[in-house]
Amino acid sequence: MYKLWAKKIKTNNIVSSIVVKNKEEISLDLKRDKAFKEICAKLDISVPLWLKRHDLEFSQFKYVTFYPHDFVDEVDFDKLEIELIDDGLDKHKN
Question: Quick one: which of 24, 49, 67, 84 has the most CB atoms within 10 Å?
């Protein structure tokens, strides 16, 4: 199962958070994209621009941060943090 945890942060406090799961048998990139869009819909925010630096940060650290300038619309928080909790790959399989 693929799980992302998103946190809206304002003044160093989590103002809301959500965990989104994807059980579909599709590529990891598609799972990430669908979960990411679901997060934005459930938090009632526009989907921020996912740039190459976000891709690098997420692939390297399994964590990405979006700031207000990454959004087309105005937002009421300081940053949106998204963390990969589970990529759905069983690391203990032989």
Answer: 84
Residue 26's contacts (CB-CB under 8 Å, 6 or more residues apart) are 34
Taking the C-alpha atoms of residue 37 and residue 61, their distance in angstroms, rounded to an integer, is 20
Cβ pair 2, 22 in contact under 8 A = yes
- Quote the CA–CA distance of 63 and 74 in Å, as a whole number: 23
How many CA atoms are closer than 13 Å to the CA of 93, on its beta-carbon side? 4
The model's pLDDT over 28-50, given as tens digits with 9 standing for 90+, comes to 889 999 999 999 999 999 999 99
- Separation of alpha carbons 81 and 64, rounded Å: 6
Q: The pTM is what?
A: 0.87
